[in-house]
Specification:
Number of strands: 15
Helix content: 40-55%
CATH class: Mainly Alpha
Shape: globular
Strand order of the largest sheet: 3-4-5
Largest sheet: 3 strands, antiparallel
CATH architecture: Alpha/alpha barrel
Distance between the termini: 37 Å
Oligomer: single chain
Structural class: mainly alpha
Strand content: 5-15%
Number of domains: 1
Length: 456
């Protein structure tokens, strides 16, 4: 097979460069026998630093890093944290990488201080595309969709950076005030479903979507879970308690409590740990349901009043991603039953097509599969055959571009959305690096890996 040309920008056009990253790419690529898979990996892993990073540090001042999603010039708290996640392992030895990720944390803290309910922000204090949304839009906010995972990803990246580097410099007074802002929102949204304590957050979009009940969302029972208006897909929830997002923030809060203790923020550390326990207990009480075919599984959304929505979505946090997020082990029985549901046609967003089978999202409509879901399926799989199955599908559906996309048509991968979507590229790169470290034999030509059969 002839050498495939790199799809990366020229060295001089790359937004951020790291010698440690280039060494990692070369090392992992050298362990992949399939030349096409190696080519896609080498394009995808560096896509975030190559194309989406705006890193600044004036003199000896603190670093500041603005991260766009790709083809949308705005910074999502969720996406930006996920986009730099695979590079944390390099931050301890590569000073440039450490400063860049520290700059992401500082920029995220500024965003949370500006508006802890917002999900996406601009580099400058401007009003942009969604400025007519009927909610409290502020200059610098791109979109104000209240998504629990926005705060959870901020907590997750902060803790993981500290663990990887031991560096406490990003966690200054502004960062602590941002954490306090976030904790205030958590408390408010745990007590805003009934009675007179209605949430200060509402959302309606002129001529389009909006939360029911005049923008405030459906009722729910106050039970320790956190209400929200939107999923990590940026789509509206059906019921106000989004289970995988609550699970993610429960883990993130527990981990954050250790960082807060190291910073001697004792009251915040105690609150973080207590909230983690409260949310976890509430999930066990209100988010476990019995499915007639799969048995006891996690619901996707509930309201504490008996309303239950069974599905899974490709965006992370998802039910499929619970072990990846640290909420449970990948062999935990309830998770395995939930996983079987997610990867079956009982999940209304699971798609089986001519080209691939996997989980999609209502965000991109019927018949679409998300490469992120295939990457997550491989990251949470126990058996080699399933991982190989996911790798084969990912390799077969990049439509000759050398990159992952937001979604593709299950029958025709050349029909895809978002040709420049850095989070999907990053997660695929993370998958390959993880396999290189943990199951390297799967990156070589397999001797005889049995064909994986999806659950019926």
């Amino acid at each position: 097979m002839p050498a495939l040309p790199s799809q990366r920008p020229s060295v001089t056009d790359r937004r951020f460069r790291s010698a440690a990253l280039e060494s990692l790419i070369d090392e992992v690529r050298g362990g992949i026998e399939d030349p096409e898979l190696a080519w896609v990996f080498a394009n995808c892993l560096p896509n975030t630093p190559d194309t989406t990073i705006d890193f600044h540090r004036n003199a000896d001042g603190p670093p500041d890093t603005y991260v766009i999603t790709g083809d949308i010039d705005a910074m999502w708290l969720r996406d930006s944290a996920a986009q730099v996640w695979p590079f944390l392992s390099l931050a301890a030895s590569d000073e440039a990488m450490r400063l860049m990720i520290a700059g992401v944390i500082r920029r995220q803290a500024k965003c949370v201080l500006l508006d802890p309910y917002a999900n996406a922000f601009y580099r400058e204090p401007i009003l942009g595309h969604w400025q007519t949304d009927r909610t409290e839009m502020k200059p610098g906010v791109h979109e104000r969709k209240w998504e629990i995972d926005s705060l959870a990803y901020f907590f997750r990246l902060s803790h993981a950076y500290w663990v990887a580097t031991g560096d406490l410099s990003p966690f200054d007074d502004a960062w602590r005030r941002a954490v306090e802002n976030a904790f205030h929102v958590i408390r408010v949204e745990q007590n805003a479903g009934e009675g007179t304590e209605r949430s200060p957050y509402s959302f309606e979009r002129p001529g389009g979507s909006g939360l029911p009940n005049d923008g405030y969302g459906l009722p729910s029972r106050n039970c320790g879970l956190i209400r929200c208006g939107f999923r990590p897909s940026d789509d509206m929830v059906r019921f106000p308690f989004l289970v995988p997002a609550n699970a993610m923030i429960a883990v993130a809060l527990n981990n954050l409590s250790r960082l807060l203790a190291a910073l001697h923020c004792d009251a915040l550390a105690i609150e973080a740990h207590r909230q983690s326990e409260t949310i976890t207990h509430a999930l066990e009480t209100h988010a476990v349901v019995h499915h007639p075919r799969h048995g006891e599984i996690w619901a996707y959304e509930v309201d504490g009043l008996g309303g239950v929505h069974l599905m899974d979505d490709a965006n992370v946090p998802s039910l499929l991603s619970l072990p990846y997020l640290g909420f449970c082990s990948p062999d935990e029985p309830r998770y395995l039953r939930t996983r079987a549901f997610c990867l079956s046609t009982d999940n209304p967003h699971f798609v089986a097509g001519k080209a691939a089978s996997g989980i999609g999202s209502p965000h991109t409509g019927p018949g679409t599969i998300w490469p992120m879901a295939l990457s997550m399926q491989a990251l949470t799989a126990l058996k080699d055959g399933e991982i190989r199955h996911c790798l084969n599908q990912l390799k077969a559906t990049h439509a000759g571009t050398g990159f992952m996309h937001e979604s593709f048509d299950a029958d025709d991968p050349h029909r895809f959305t978002r040709p420049w979507f850095a989070w999907a590229n990053t997660l695929f790169g993370e998958l390959i690096v993880t396999l290189f470290k943990q199951r390297r034999h799967l990156l070589n030509t397999p001797a005889a890996v049995p064909e994986f059969v999806l659950p019926s």
